[in-house]
Design brief:
It is a single chain. Helices cover 32% and strands 26% of the residues. The protein has nine helices and 13 strands. The strands form four sheets. The chain has a five-stranded mixed sheet with strand order 1-7-6-4-5, with helices on both faces. Strands 8-13-12-11 form a four-stranded mixed sheet, with helices on both faces. A two-stranded antiparallel sheet has the order 2-3. Helix 3 packs across helix 4.
């Protein structure tokens, strides 16, 4: 059985926080941020809008695009490290909001790689015949766990949610290959500290990511029996434009064939890849039968990638 994406959706808060705004909060400049990260602005969810709210809006859009009712969903997987509460989980919250009364629901925690982990997990349930339709959401409200006096982290992050519905698709379409990985020894490089804030060794994370993203991308291309020139679109985790460019150059993908939302949204953690995917699809940039590579990395340390052929 071939398993692929039937519909996409995303949600971004209305409030825009620019680099100029951050100059008023922390010792930084617009030039410093843009030069090192490629970010100009990011979206921040206001008080009262939590991960489950953003996830619901993105999920509802994905269901509509897939032409699938909430009651047809068998499983909801939500990738997040910023749930509203430790329990109940975000997936149960949006199950109730959507009216997906027939769905099992669980959250997945793999930081910025969470969406890829959740998508691969959902694929296995469909591929075995256990479930027919799975809703996969990546969502994070990172503004809840940022130290706004730490310029190494607060300038990077934004809030948002992205979602997909997956199910059976035509032969030779859908997910062709995947790779998931982790290295717990690198956990101290990117973690949530005792005060509840994100702490990152930026230099070491950069060194890890600039190697791992291209390597994982090449691995899934080879596993799928494809060549670099077969890749039509690259959807990387939106962490840093220099890391993204390293992956793009390794794959020899033209600039216009790489999704870049980082300039306007920053790093949305688990929501980063599905937001970029949803925007790219809605802009008509991904066509039927295109080969698309999704690739990300995150705290843990974790990484993941998959290759898919677009279409139902």
């Amino acid at each position: 059985m071939s398993v692929g994406i039937l519909g996409t959706g995303h949600y971004l808060p209305d409030h825009v926080l620019t680099n100029e705004d951050l100059e008023e909060i922390v010792d930084t400049t617009d030039e410093w941020i843009q030069t090192r990260t490629g970010i100009k602005e990011r979206r921040i969810a206001k008080d009262g809008i939590e991960a489950s709210d953003m996830a619901y809006y993105a999920a509802k859009q994905a269901l509509e695009e897939a032409d699938v009712s909430a009651e047809d969903i068998d499983l909801i997987l939500v990738a997040t490290v910023t749930p509203d509460t430790p329990f109940p989980n975000v997936s149960c919250m949006i199950q109730e909001k959507l009216g997906a009364k027939n769905a099992a629901a669980m959250d997945v925690s793999a930081a910025c790689t969470g969406f890829v982990y959740a998508l691969v997990t959902g694929e296995q349930f469909v591929k075995t015949g256990a479930y027919e339709k799975v809703l996969v959401v990546g969502v994070d409200k990172l503004s809840n766990i940022l130290d706004w006096s730490d310029r190494n982290t607060c300038v990077l992050m934004g809030d948002g949610a992205g979602a997909v519905v997956i199910g059976e698709v035509g032969e030779e379409r859908g997910i062709l290959s995947f790779e998931l990985g982790s290295d717990g020894e690198g956990g101290e490089l990117l973690y949530q500290n005792e005060n509840g804030y994100i702490t990152m060794n930026g230099r070491e994370v950069f060194k890890f990511a600039v190697t791992q993203m291209p390597e994982s991308s090449m691995n899934v291309i080879e596993k799928a029996g494809l060549e670099r020139e077969d890749v039509d679109y690259l959807i990387p985790h939106q962490a840093n434009i220099r890391i993204m460019e390293a992956a793009r150059r390794r794959l020899d993908v033209p600039k216009e064939k790489m999704a870049t939302t980082i300039e306007n949204y920053g790093n949305n953690s688990a929501a980063s890849i599905p937001i970029a995917l949803s925007e790219t699809v809605k802009n008509g940039k991904i066509q039927e039968d295109d080969v698309v590579v999704l690739v990300g990395f995150g705290g843990g340390l974790t990484w993941g990638a998959l290759a898919l052929r677009w279409g139902k």
